[in-house]
Amino acid sequence: MPSLTERYGQTALITGASSGIGRAFAHALAACGFDLVLVARRKALLEELSLELSKACNCHALVREADLSSAEDIDALLAGLGELEIDLLVSNAGFGLKGPFEAGDLGRQISMVNTNVIAPLMLCYHLLPGMKKRGRGGIIITGSIEGETGFPWSTSYAATKAFVHQLGGGLWAECRGTGVDVLVLAPGSTDTDAPRLQGISDDQLIGVMSPERVAKEALEQLGKRPLWIPGWHNRLFIRLLRVLPRGFSLKMAGVGMKKAIDNSQR
Ligand SMILES: NC(=O)c1ccc[n+]([C@@H]2O[C@H](COP(=O)([O-])OP(=O)(O)OC[C@H]3O[C@@H](n4cnc5c(N)ncnc54)[C@H](OP(=O)(O)O)[C@@H]3O)[C@@H](O)[C@H]2O)c1
Fold it and tell me: Ligand 1 within 6 A of 69 CB?
Protein backbone atom coordinates (compact mmCIF):
# COMPACT_ATOMS: atom_id res chain seq x y z
CA MET A 1 0.00 0.00 0.00
CA PRO A 2 1.55 3.40 -0.94
CA SER A 3 2.09 5.80 1.96
CA LEU A 4 -0.43 8.57 2.67
CA THR A 5 1.84 11.24 1.13
CA GLU A 6 2.33 9.06 -1.98
CA ARG A 7 -1.43 8.67 -2.30
CA TYR A 8 -2.55 12.21 -1.54
CA GLY A 9 0.34 14.70 -1.69
CA GLN A 10 2.41 16.75 0.69
CA THR A 11 0.16 19.19 2.53
CA ALA A 12 -2.70 18.61 4.96
CA LEU A 13 -5.00 21.23 6.46
CA ILE A 14 -6.51 20.31 9.83
CA THR A 15 -9.26 22.32 11.48
CA GLY A 16 -9.63 22.06 15.23
CA ALA A 17 -5.93 21.25 15.54
CA SER A 18 -5.50 23.05 18.88
CA SER A 19 -6.78 20.12 20.95
CA GLY A 20 -8.29 16.65 21.08
CA ILE A 21 -8.80 14.65 17.90
CA GLY A 22 -7.48 17.43 15.62
CA ARG A 23 -4.26 17.64 17.59
CA ALA A 24 -3.92 13.84 17.36
CA PHE A 25 -4.40 14.07 13.57
CA ALA A 26 -1.64 16.69 13.47
CA HIS A 27 0.81 14.40 15.29
CA ALA A 28 -0.11 11.40 13.14
CA LEU A 29 0.13 13.28 9.83
CA ALA A 30 3.38 15.00 10.78
CA ALA A 31 4.84 11.57 11.59
CA CYS A 32 3.73 10.42 8.10
CA GLY A 33 5.74 13.25 6.52
CA PHE A 34 3.01 15.80 5.76
CA ASP A 35 3.47 19.54 5.96
CA LEU A 36 0.54 21.01 7.84
CA VAL A 37 -1.78 23.99 8.04
CA LEU A 38 -3.13 24.08 11.60
CA VAL A 39 -6.43 25.92 12.05
CA ALA A 40 -8.35 26.92 15.21
CA ARG A 41 -9.04 30.01 17.35
CA ARG A 42 -6.47 29.39 20.10
CA LYS A 43 -3.41 30.60 18.26
CA ALA A 44 -1.00 30.07 21.17
CA LEU A 45 -1.84 26.35 21.31
CA LEU A 46 -1.35 26.04 17.54
CA GLU A 47 2.02 27.79 17.73
CA GLU A 48 3.11 25.49 20.55
CA LEU A 49 2.04 22.47 18.49
CA SER A 50 3.79 23.75 15.37
CA LEU A 51 7.04 24.09 17.30
CA GLU A 52 6.62 20.65 18.85
CA LEU A 53 6.05 19.02 15.44
CA SER A 54 8.96 20.85 13.88
CA LYS A 55 11.27 19.52 16.61
CA ALA A 56 9.82 15.99 16.64
CA CYS A 57 9.52 15.30 12.88
CA ASN A 58 10.97 18.29 11.08
CA CYS A 59 7.42 19.09 10.03
CA HIS A 60 6.65 22.46 8.49
CA ALA A 61 3.39 23.52 10.15
CA LEU A 62 1.74 26.84 9.35
CA VAL A 63 -0.58 28.34 11.95
CA ARG A 64 -3.85 29.93 10.87
CA GLU A 65 -6.09 31.51 13.50
CA ALA A 66 -9.73 31.39 12.39
CA ASP A 67 -13.15 31.36 13.97
CA LEU A 68 -14.90 28.84 11.76
CA SER A 69 -18.34 30.01 12.85
CA SER A 70 -17.61 33.09 10.74
CA ALA A 71 -17.90 32.86 6.94
CA GLU A 72 -15.59 35.91 6.71
CA ASP A 73 -12.87 34.05 8.67
CA ILE A 74 -13.26 31.01 6.40
CA ASP A 75 -12.96 33.21 3.30
CA ALA A 76 -9.86 34.85 4.80
CA LEU A 77 -8.38 31.45 5.65
CA LEU A 78 -8.90 30.22 2.08
CA ALA A 79 -7.60 33.46 0.55
CA GLY A 80 -4.54 33.31 2.83
CA LEU A 81 -3.60 29.91 1.42
CA GLY A 82 -2.70 31.65 -1.84
CA GLU A 83 -1.07 29.18 -4.22
CA LEU A 84 -0.60 26.54 -1.52
CA GLU A 85 -2.25 23.29 -2.62
CA ILE A 86 -4.14 21.38 0.07
CA ASP A 87 -3.87 17.67 -0.66
CA LEU A 88 -5.60 16.35 2.44
CA LEU A 89 -8.37 18.19 4.27
CA VAL A 90 -9.22 17.12 7.80
CA SER A 91 -12.37 19.08 8.59
CA ASN A 92 -12.56 18.27 12.25
CA ALA A 93 -13.36 21.43 14.25
CA GLY A 94 -16.68 21.35 16.00
CA PHE A 95 -18.48 21.55 19.28
CA GLY A 96 -21.70 20.31 20.85
CA LEU A 97 -24.48 21.61 23.06
CA LYS A 98 -26.53 19.38 25.34
CA GLY A 99 -29.86 19.84 27.11
CA PRO A 100 -33.48 20.51 26.12
CA PHE A 101 -33.61 22.06 22.62
CA GLU A 102 -35.65 25.15 23.53
CA ALA A 103 -33.66 25.86 26.72
CA GLY A 104 -30.41 26.31 24.83
CA ASP A 105 -29.27 29.71 23.61
CA LEU A 106 -30.31 30.16 19.96
CA GLY A 107 -27.21 32.20 19.09
CA ARG A 108 -24.96 29.36 20.35
CA GLN A 109 -26.96 26.85 18.34
CA ILE A 110 -26.57 28.95 15.19
CA SER A 111 -22.85 29.31 15.89
CA MET A 112 -22.66 25.51 16.22
CA VAL A 113 -24.43 25.05 12.88
CA ASN A 114 -21.97 27.48 11.27
CA THR A 115 -18.93 25.71 12.76
CA ASN A 116 -20.09 22.11 12.34
CA VAL A 117 -21.98 22.45 9.05
CA ILE A 118 -21.16 25.61 7.06
CA ALA A 119 -17.39 25.46 7.65
CA PRO A 120 -16.96 21.85 6.37
CA LEU A 121 -19.29 22.65 3.46
CA MET A 122 -17.26 25.72 2.46
CA LEU A 123 -13.89 24.00 2.91
CA CYS A 124 -14.94 21.00 0.82
CA TYR A 125 -16.48 23.25 -1.82
CA HIS A 126 -13.32 25.32 -2.23
CA LEU A 127 -10.64 22.64 -1.80
CA LEU A 128 -12.17 19.69 -3.68
CA PRO A 129 -11.84 21.16 -7.22
CA GLY A 130 -8.05 21.48 -6.86
CA MET A 131 -7.78 17.89 -5.64
CA LYS A 132 -9.89 16.62 -8.54
CA LYS A 133 -7.82 18.64 -11.02
CA ARG A 134 -4.60 17.17 -9.64
CA GLY A 135 -6.17 13.69 -9.73
CA ARG A 136 -5.48 12.96 -6.08
CA GLY A 137 -6.49 14.12 -2.64
CA GLY A 138 -8.25 13.17 0.56
CA ILE A 139 -11.01 14.56 2.74
CA ILE A 140 -11.82 13.44 6.27
CA ILE A 141 -14.82 15.02 7.95
CA THR A 142 -15.30 14.42 11.66
CA GLY A 143 -18.91 13.64 12.36
CA SER A 144 -20.14 11.65 15.37
CA ILE A 145 -22.08 8.51 16.16
CA GLU A 146 -24.82 11.05 16.94
CA GLY A 147 -24.92 11.87 13.21
CA GLU A 148 -26.04 8.31 12.42
CA THR A 149 -29.30 8.58 14.32
CA GLY A 150 -31.26 11.32 16.04
CA PHE A 151 -30.17 12.07 19.60
CA PRO A 152 -32.66 13.73 21.97
CA TRP A 153 -31.14 16.26 24.44
CA SER A 154 -28.41 16.76 21.89
CA THR A 155 -30.85 17.48 19.11
CA SER A 156 -29.18 20.34 17.22
CA TYR A 157 -25.69 18.85 17.56
CA ALA A 158 -26.86 15.48 16.21
CA ALA A 159 -28.54 17.34 13.33
CA THR A 160 -25.27 19.14 12.46
CA LYS A 161 -23.46 15.81 12.41
CA ALA A 162 -26.21 14.19 10.30
CA PHE A 163 -25.55 16.92 7.73
CA VAL A 164 -21.82 16.20 7.47
CA HIS A 165 -22.50 12.46 7.34
CA GLN A 166 -24.68 13.00 4.26
CA LEU A 167 -22.23 15.54 2.81
CA GLY A 168 -19.30 13.15 3.17
CA GLY A 169 -21.27 10.14 1.94
CA GLY A 170 -22.42 11.96 -1.19
CA LEU A 171 -18.92 13.28 -1.90
CA TRP A 172 -17.44 9.80 -1.39
CA ALA A 173 -19.63 8.51 -4.21
CA GLU A 174 -19.15 11.58 -6.45
CA CYS A 175 -15.37 11.32 -6.11
CA ARG A 176 -15.04 7.66 -7.01
CA GLY A 177 -12.61 7.27 -9.88
CA THR A 178 -11.20 10.82 -9.48
CA GLY A 179 -8.29 9.91 -7.19
CA VAL A 180 -9.94 11.73 -4.27
CA ASP A 181 -10.90 9.67 -1.21
CA VAL A 182 -13.53 10.89 1.26
CA LEU A 183 -14.21 9.53 4.73
CA VAL A 184 -16.69 10.49 7.41
CA LEU A 185 -15.21 9.74 10.83
CA ALA A 186 -17.91 9.09 13.41
CA PRO A 187 -16.37 8.82 16.86
CA GLY A 188 -18.21 7.83 20.00
CA SER A 189 -17.03 9.07 23.40
CA THR A 190 -13.46 10.25 23.03
CA ASP A 191 -11.18 11.49 25.78
CA THR A 192 -10.96 15.18 24.82
CA ASP A 193 -12.25 18.49 26.21
CA ALA A 194 -15.47 18.16 24.20
CA PRO A 195 -17.62 16.04 26.57
CA ARG A 196 -16.65 18.19 29.58
CA LEU A 197 -17.34 21.42 27.64
CA GLN A 198 -20.82 20.02 26.98
CA GLY A 199 -21.39 19.39 30.67
CA ILE A 200 -20.86 15.63 30.66
CA SER A 201 -18.47 14.39 33.31
CA ASP A 202 -15.89 11.65 32.70
CA ASP A 203 -17.68 9.05 34.82
CA GLN A 204 -20.76 9.28 32.56
CA LEU A 205 -18.86 8.28 29.44
CA ILE A 206 -18.96 4.67 28.26
CA GLY A 207 -16.21 3.02 26.23
CA VAL A 208 -14.09 6.15 25.96
CA MET A 209 -11.38 6.00 23.29
CA SER A 210 -8.20 8.03 23.04
CA PRO A 211 -8.04 10.77 20.39
CA GLU A 212 -4.81 9.20 19.08
CA ARG A 213 -6.57 5.89 18.44
CA VAL A 214 -9.51 7.64 16.74
CA ALA A 215 -7.24 9.66 14.40
CA LYS A 216 -5.09 6.61 13.62
CA GLU A 217 -8.13 4.51 12.67
CA ALA A 218 -9.45 7.30 10.43
CA LEU A 219 -6.18 7.50 8.51
CA GLU A 220 -6.17 3.70 8.14
CA GLN A 221 -9.74 3.68 6.80
CA LEU A 222 -9.46 6.61 4.36
CA GLY A 223 -9.86 5.19 0.85
CA LYS A 224 -11.40 1.96 2.09
CA ARG A 225 -14.98 2.99 2.90
CA PRO A 226 -17.23 6.09 3.17
CA LEU A 227 -17.84 5.95 6.94
CA TRP A 228 -15.78 4.79 9.89
CA ILE A 229 -17.03 4.40 13.44
CA PRO A 230 -14.05 3.74 15.74
CA GLY A 231 -14.57 1.06 18.43
CA TRP A 232 -16.54 -2.18 18.06
CA HIS A 233 -18.85 -1.13 20.92
CA ASN A 234 -19.81 2.06 19.03
CA ARG A 235 -20.34 0.12 15.79
CA LEU A 236 -22.56 -2.40 17.62
CA PHE A 237 -24.55 0.41 19.28
CA ILE A 238 -25.22 2.15 15.96
CA ARG A 239 -26.06 -1.11 14.20
CA LEU A 240 -28.63 -1.80 16.90
CA LEU A 241 -30.17 1.68 16.70
CA ARG A 242 -30.42 1.35 12.89
CA VAL A 243 -32.36 -1.93 12.96
CA LEU A 244 -34.75 -0.98 15.76
CA PRO A 245 -37.98 0.88 14.93
CA ARG A 246 -37.14 4.61 14.64
CA GLY A 247 -39.30 5.69 17.57
CA PHE A 248 -37.81 3.06 19.85
CA SER A 249 -34.19 3.87 18.91
CA LEU A 250 -34.79 7.61 19.46
CA LYS A 251 -36.24 6.90 22.91
CA MET A 252 -33.34 4.59 23.73
CA ALA A 253 -30.71 7.14 22.62
CA GLY A 254 -32.53 9.81 24.62
CA VAL A 255 -32.61 7.80 27.84
CA GLY A 256 -28.81 7.37 27.82
CA MET A 257 -28.12 11.01 26.95
CA LYS A 258 -30.53 12.41 29.56
CA LYS A 259 -29.08 10.16 32.25
CA ALA A 260 -25.54 11.33 31.42
CA ILE A 261 -26.57 15.00 31.55
CA ASP A 262 -28.61 14.61 34.77
CA ASN A 263 -25.88 12.62 36.55
CA SER A 264 -23.25 15.19 35.55
CA GLN A 265 -25.34 17.94 37.13
CA ARG A 266 -25.59 16.17 40.51
N1 LIG B 1 -14.83 13.94 22.07
C2 LIG B 1 -15.89 13.24 21.71
O3 LIG B 1 -16.44 12.46 22.51
C4 LIG B 1 -16.45 13.39 20.30
C5 LIG B 1 -17.39 12.43 19.88
C6 LIG B 1 -17.89 12.54 18.59
C7 LIG B 1 -17.47 13.55 17.76
N8 LIG B 1 -16.58 14.47 18.20
C9 LIG B 1 -16.19 15.54 17.26
O10 LIG B 1 -14.78 15.56 17.15
C11 LIG B 1 -14.38 16.85 16.71
C12 LIG B 1 -13.19 17.30 17.54
O13 LIG B 1 -13.61 17.46 18.88
P14 LIG B 1 -12.73 16.98 20.11
O15 LIG B 1 -13.42 15.84 20.73
O16 LIG B 1 -11.33 16.81 19.69
O17 LIG B 1 -12.92 18.20 21.11
P18 LIG B 1 -11.99 19.44 21.48
O19 LIG B 1 -10.74 18.97 22.11
O20 LIG B 1 -12.88 20.37 22.22
O21 LIG B 1 -11.59 20.04 20.06
C22 LIG B 1 -12.47 20.86 19.32
C23 LIG B 1 -11.61 21.61 18.32
O24 LIG B 1 -12.48 22.38 17.48
C25 LIG B 1 -12.01 23.71 17.47
N26 LIG B 1 -13.12 24.63 17.34
C27 LIG B 1 -14.28 24.64 18.03
N28 LIG B 1 -15.02 25.70 17.67
C29 LIG B 1 -14.30 26.39 16.73
C30 LIG B 1 -14.51 27.58 15.99
N31 LIG B 1 -15.62 28.30 16.13
N32 LIG B 1 -13.55 27.97 15.12
C33 LIG B 1 -12.42 27.25 14.98
N34 LIG B 1 -12.15 26.13 15.65
C35 LIG B 1 -13.09 25.70 16.52
C36 LIG B 1 -11.30 23.91 18.81
O37 LIG B 1 -10.31 24.92 18.69
P38 LIG B 1 -10.34 26.37 19.38
O39 LIG B 1 -11.15 26.26 20.62
O40 LIG B 1 -8.90 26.67 19.62
O41 LIG B 1 -10.95 27.24 18.34
C42 LIG B 1 -10.65 22.55 19.00
O43 LIG B 1 -9.40 22.51 18.35
C44 LIG B 1 -15.60 17.74 16.81
O45 LIG B 1 -16.14 17.93 15.53
C46 LIG B 1 -16.54 16.95 17.69
O47 LIG B 1 -17.89 17.27 17.43
C48 LIG B 1 -16.05 14.40 19.45
Answer: yes
State how far the alpha carbon of 204 is from the alpha carbons of 98, 129, 256, in Å. Answer: 14, 42, 10
How many residues make up the chain in this entry? 266
Nearest ligand 1 atom, CA 70: 31
pLDDT given at position 166? 98
The pLDDT of residue 212 is: 98
CATH class of the domain defined by 7-265: alpha beta
What's the pTM? 0.97
Question: Where along the chain do its domains lie?
Answer: 7-265
CA–centroid distance, 19 to ligand 1, in Å, is 7
Mutate to test the pocket of ligand 1, among 37, 68, 95 (most ligand atoms within 8 A of CB): 95
Active site residues: 157
The span from the CA of 119 to the CA of 142, in Å, is 12
pLDDT bracket for residue 199 (50, 70, 90): confident
Q: Which residues of 117-135 are buried (b: 16+ CB within 10 A; e: fewer)?
A: bbbbbbbbebbbeebeeee
Q: Is 147 in the pocket of ligand 1 (CB under 6 A)?
A: no
Mean pLDDT of the chain: 96
Give me ligand 1 centre to Cα 94, in Å. 4
Using a CB cutoff of 8 Å and minimum separation of 24, what contacts does 111-118 make? 111/69, 112/69, 112/156, 112/157, 112/160, 113/156, 113/160, 114/68, 114/69, 114/70, 114/71, 115/68, 115/69, 116/157, 116/160, 116/161, 116/163, 116/164, 117/160, 117/163, 117/164, 118/71, 118/74
Nearest residue by C-alpha to atom 20 in ligand 1: 194
